[in-house]
Design a protein that fits this description.
The chain has 7 helices and 26 strands. It has a 15-stranded mixed sheet that branches. It has a 4-stranded parallel sheet with strand order 17-19-21-22, with no helix packed on it. Strands 9-11-13 form a 3-stranded parallel sheet, with no helix packed on it. The protein is elongated and about 85 Å long. The protein is α/β, with parallel strands linked by helices and 489 residues long.
């Protein structure tokens, strides 16, 4: 009995200890949640948000504890020395209850008082064509020690230049300025951001050349300057970005030859130089990019012979788009070695010759476009291939290309390609010219005769005379004999 009582008391004691620890943990959590926020920090947060969403917004009434029990959507905080500080601020309609900007949104001075800010983003905030705004050029140095990510996305009302003072944000790892109204040139000071991993300035109206200083961003993983008005040649310094994974310079006005320094980008998985003005032919540097998965060079007057490269070296290729590049030569059979290839675009070039049947056997291919060339001969892909690809196999606008006529009845004939007609027995193939094969007047033969028009009778030679000719002569003699007999009678 005493043993049972002792066991029960021990179990009760364990329960009390567990409850005690649970309560103390909750108390600690309550203390953590109830940690105070520095008053100046709180006021700076309220004023900053108010400058973007409108004066109607009263943070002290709506969110008296913005880092605690009344959190604000788009605001994140961290504890530092027992106090809450704002570390992330997202302005714009990212979520249903996000902070939406007012038509007259503006940058207030209090933004730069949030000195623990690590991430700052504006999405679809500055959109009014009647209220154009520029990014402040000063005070960014106050965020230099903390800011790691700065983004402006989909703000067509945000115009003017990219502040050179962004180059002083020494801890910045991501600078993203997408689909805004920004113009002017890329500041050379951007090259000072030694910790930068991602630089995306696409879909703006940025002009001028790509600055050489970007070659100093040795740790850069993503460089996207697409859909701007950039001009001039590729800087040689791009070859120094050996950590680069993605390089997108598409849809600009870049010109000149494609630099051989690109061969140094051994880790590159995407290279998109499409829709520019590059020329000078395909350089051998491309075949050294063994890690590239997407190679898009389309819509450039590059020119040159596509057969000059060893395409089989690019074993990782998933996408190869060389369309509309004024390329010459034939379709390289080595492309059939790219077993991972999913998309092949060679359309609208000056390619000639037969199409290698092996490219139809690529195991992962889902689209092949060869239209708009000078390809010839008979397509030799399987019916299964045409059924799988449909119109994702493009071979139209190749005048002398055809497909086997038996495919016509299967419903799997390639779109825009004519059937190959069985050559009918022609006059040239079935009878020789009698005048050149046999000269009856002279009794000699001409073995160097050329084909001429005939009556399509089959011809057989015997002792140098045409049997059909002998037959006709005999008929003529019989008829003549018969006529003479009647006349005599």
């Amino acid at each position: 009995m005493m043993k049972v009582f002792a066991s029960s008391m021990f179990f009760i004691l364990l329960c009390i200890l567990h409850m005690s620890f649970s309560c103390s943990g909750q108390a600690a959590a309550s203390i953590s949640i109830a940690a105070p926020m520095e008053k100046a920090e709180q006021e700076a947060l309220y004023s900053t948000i108010q400058s973007f969403v409108g004066k109607w917004w009263n943070g002290s009434d709506l969110y008296p504890d913005p880092c605690g029990w009344t959190p604000i959507q788009g605001v994140s905080c961290d504890l530092s020395n027992g106090l809450w500080y704002v570390t992330s601020l997202d302005i714009g309609p990212v979520h249903d209850n996000s902070l939406n900007c007012a038509p007259n949104a503006d940058f207030g001075p209090h933004l730069f008082a949030l000195k623990h800010l690590k991430s700052l983003s504006f999405f679809n905030c500055f959109v009014s064509p009647h209220h154009l705004l520029t990014i402040p050029t000063d005070k960014w140095e106050s965020l230099a020690d903390s800011l790691e990510s700065l983004e402006f996305r989909s703000n067509p009302g945000l115009v003017g230049q990219i502040p050179a003072t962004f180059g002083g944000l020494k801890n910045l790892q991501s600078l993203v300025l997408i689909q805004n109204g920004l113009s002017s040139k890329i500041p050379t000071d951007i090259g000072n951001l030694s910790n930068l991993k991602r630089l995306v300035l696409s879909q703006n109206q940025i002009t001028g050349k790509i600055p050489d200083s970007l070659g100093s961003l040795s740790g850069l993983l993503i460089l996207d300057l697409s859909r701007n008005l950039l001009s001039g040649p590729l800087p040689h310094t791009l070859g120094k970005l050996t950590s680069l994974l993605k390089l997108d310079l598409s849809s600009n006005q870049l010109a000149g030859s494609i630099q051989g320094e690109l061969r140094n980008l051994k880790n590159l998985t995407l290279l998109d130089l499409s829709r520019n003005r590059f020329s000078g032919g395909l350089t051998n540097s491309f075949q050294e990019m063994s890690s590239v998965e997407e190679l898009v060079l389309s819509n450039n007057p590059v020119g040159g012979d596509i057969m000059s490269l060893n395409w089989q070296n690019l074993k990782c290729l998933l996408v190869l788009d060389l369309s509309n590049m004024s390329l010459t030569g034939g379709i390289p059979d080595s492309i059939a070695e790219l077993k991972r290839l999913r998309f092949l675009g060679l359309n609208d070039n000056n390619l000639a010759g037969d199409i290698p049947p092996r490219i139809g056997a690529l195991p992962n291919i889902s689209a092949i476009y060869l239209n708009g060339n000078y390809l010839t001969g008979e397509l030799k892909f399987s019916e299964l291939f045409y059924g799988k690809m449909g119109r994702r196999f493009g071979a139209w606008n190749n005048t002398n290309l055809c497909y086997p006529i038996e495919l016509k009845s299967t419903g799997h004939a390639p779109y825009g390609v004519k059937p190959c007609h069985q050559e009918a027995t022609t006059l040239h193939e079935n009878i020789s010219d009698l005048d050149e094969k046999s000269n009856l007047g002279k009794g000699d033969l001409n073995h160097d005769s050329h084909p001429t028009v005939s009556l399509a009778f089959p011809s057989f030679a015997s002792n140098g005379l045409c049997l059909c000719y002998i037959f006709l002569c005999e008929l003529f003699m019989i008829a003549l004999d018969f006529s003479l007999t009647r006349f005599a009678w």
